[in-house]
Amino acid sequence: MKLRGIELRRVSMPLVSPFRTSFGTQTKRDILLLKAVTDDAEGWGECVALADPLYSSEYVDSQVDVLRRFLLPKLASPEGQAAIARSGAAAVAGLLHPFKGQRMAKAAVEMAILDAELRGLGRSFGRELGAVADRVPSGVSVGIYDSVPQLLTVVQGFLDAGYVRIKLKIEPGWDLVPVAAVRERFGADVPLQVDANTAYTLRDARHLAKLDEFDLLLIEQPLEEEDVLGHAALARQMATPICLDESIVSAQTAAAAIALDACQIVNIKPGRVGGYLEARRIHDLAAAHGLAVWCGGMLETGIGRAANVALAALPGFTLPGDISASDRFYQTDITEPIVMADGHIAVPAGPGLGVTPIPEVLDAVTTSAEWIPF
Ligand SMILES: CC(=O)N[C@@H](Cc1ccc2ccccc2c1)C(=O)O
Ligand SMILES: [Mg+2]
């Protein structure tokens, strides 16, 4: 496979409604898309970095910069071209390993090259990754609201839409009361979990343990991302399973967290861990230790969303993910909308991602595009 170049494209997409979490309120998404052009096909990658370094240390301008100055020149070098010609996308992580961190940029470029490679081979992402299902259950992430009645109206809407699992964002001051209200209104059988996005400390352990009465599936990332020992201590003080998100940035950090009993469940996000191939390694590692995993979301467009559906079809993804339909976040997606049918989303069967951007829609939301020839 000969890589001719990569196009860096920024798109700006308004959210259908403000999405508030413990780290702020988002009303639009500033997204970096990559298009890899090879002799055989074009492939697409999506960088999940936010505009600001509020979820992780990456932010979209930093990922553009590191791609332009370091990552793409390395892939374009004679060494890079030879390795990619020989091994395709499987060579990317090794080539980029000398550059520390920047996992969301690395994930996006590996994804674009993998998509081009698979389209050229006529193989789907699902087939390549090891999907064992042709549809996956769809959960939904619900933000923080100004009032409980407002929250209950939103949850009712998502349950009516058919989402099979509800995830509530929580933060100090918005946790026990909204969770109790959802349980009270919708009953004990609705699969329910919470996500704190690192908002608590170990001093909150006794408070967080009060969540145990609500029979939650898990509590996601209660403490800050580097506090692996704190999560292990918290796990000993509450019954609700601890799930890590921000803390798990690679198979290595997953292995450490599992060995330290810092988590019983892992939220896998390919963009956070450096790509779909590393995501599969984490899936395999978790399965070897008997841990359930599920696929998290970063408000991806249909590009990232389609790839996440394929990943979520692997056997170890036994909990519903945050792979909602496109209309959870976007009025108009840049691909054919990803839709949910009785609580499930079909795994795309076409070559590569199985979806491609719709040119006129993509152009309408594009704020910049830059071709980087190899
Ligand atoms: C679906 C979900 O809750 N995702 C992340 C948090 C998150 C929240 C807000 C975001 C806004 C713009 C881009 C990515 C974002 C990710 C999580 O699981 O922790
Ligand atoms: Mg999370």
Automatic annotation (TrEMBL):
The keyword Coiled coil does not apply. InterPro entries: Enolase-like_C_sf (IPR036849), Enolase-like_N (IPR029017), Enolase_C-like (IPR029065), Mandelate_racemase_C (IPR013342), Mandelate_racemase_N_dom (IPR013341), OSBS/NAAAR (IPR010197). Its EC number is 4.2.1.113. Keywords: Lyase, Magnesium, Metal-binding. Residues 148-241 form the Mandelate racemase/muconate lactonizing enzyme C-terminal domain. One of its GO terms (molecular function) is metal ion binding. Its cofactor is a divalent metal cation. GO terms for biological process: menaquinone biosynthetic process. SMART domains: MR_MLE. Pfam families: MR_MLE_C (PF13378), MR_MLE_N (PF02746). SUPFAM superfamilies: Enolase C-terminal domain-like, Enolase N-terminal domain-like. Gene3D superfamilies: Enolase-like C-terminal domain, Enolase-like, N-terminal domain. This is o-succinylbenzoate synthase. The lineage of its organism: Bacteria, Bacillati, Actinomycetota, Actinomycetes, Streptosporangiales.
